[in-house]
Design brief:
The protein is mostly helical and 59 residues long. The protein has two helices and two strands; from the N terminus they run ααββ. A two-stranded antiparallel sheet has the order 1-2.
Length: 59
């Protein structure tokens, strides 16, 4: 099964989003991270269902 690669820029953006959500309401950042993790899991689970369009990219 392919492994999802999260680039440093995406990690930084997720950290910034976490901070923004926590500023809006305590605990909301944690919900964001939980949902992000769930989505990453789905991407990994379903990665082989899509055709490759470039070396490491699928559509």
């Amino acid at each position: 099964m392919p492994q999802l690669i999260v680039k440093p820029r995406a990690i930084k953006m997720a950290q910034e989003a976490y901070g923004w959500y926590e500023d809006q309401q305590q605990g909301l950042g944690e919900l964001f991270l939980k949902e992000l993790s769930r989505c990453f899991g789905k991407i990994e689970d379903w990665a082989l269902l899509y055709a490759k369009i470039k070396k490491d990219f699928v559509k």
